[in-house]
């Protein structure tokens, strides 16, 4: 069962629309937490075009004390690769993914270990990654480790936020059938403005490299509604990332905490 947020939620509605949006996210979080789970720990993947607001959504979900949240893992990107082929709608990408799902590459284990190390820099008790022969085995191992970390901390859910994992939804839905997915949407012009801002702010790290036409193509590829999928869509629109604004939007929910380590003031 998936809860689908209305596509018009918050659209061109100013602060009232954004308030409604955050209330919907809070409601959706509660639905996820009360769903009957087929495994001891609920699994939520937050995906979407970079600079669409996925970090804010992750932060709002992580407000709950029973949710484990962590940095971006890029796990599927390193495991299956060929993201640019997917962006170009190259059908050979799926064929290459199936090959890596059947047989992992020689360097896969080291790549997966580094993904987990980068995502869990603040933790010193990450379970060891067991060596697997197939890509499918490494996906199961990924979920096993996150489940173990959640249970160790008394959490009933974990939230993984890597925007580009949107490309691998079909694989994740098949290999992790009990997982839930949140696809964050935002207006194209707002994404482009945020990308340009990111290029200026983080030019030394080269994290938002690429021309404007490249990012337009990327946004178009990552903002459509996949046919036949009932993945909840979260319309971000022009929502402010400022902490004060988030607190203001969330104020109508008295049971929603107003603090989050992932929402920081941006001057």
Description:
- The chain has a single domain (14-249), classed as Rossmann fold (3-Layer(aba) Sandwich).
- It has helices spanning 14-34, 54-62, 75-80, 83-87, 92-102, 108-119, 135-152, 169-175, 188-201, 212-221, 243-250, and strands spanning 42-48, 67-69, 157-161, 180-185, 233-235.
- With 267 residues, the protein is an alpha/beta fold.
- The longest helix is centred in the N-terminal third of the chain and has 21 residues, at 14-34.
- Strands 2-3-1-4-5 form a five-stranded parallel β-sheet, sandwiched between helices.
- α9 packs across α10.
- Which whole number gives the mean pLDDT? 76
- Strand order in space, largest sheet: 2-3-1-4-5
Q: Could you give the distance between the termini?
A: 40 Å
Number of strands: 5
Radius of gyration: 18 Å
CATH architecture: 3-Layer(aba) Sandwich
Largest sheet: 5 strands, parallel
Number of helices: 11
- Structural category: alpha/beta
CATH class placement: Alpha Beta
What fold name goes in the CATH topology slot? Rossmann fold
Shape: globular
Q: How many independent structural domains? A: 1
Q: How much helix is in the residues?
A: 40-55%
Strand content: 5-15%
The stretches of 5 or more residues where confidence is low (pLDDT under 50) are: 1-23, 237-267
The arrangement of helices and strands along the chain is: HEHEHHHHHEHEHHEH
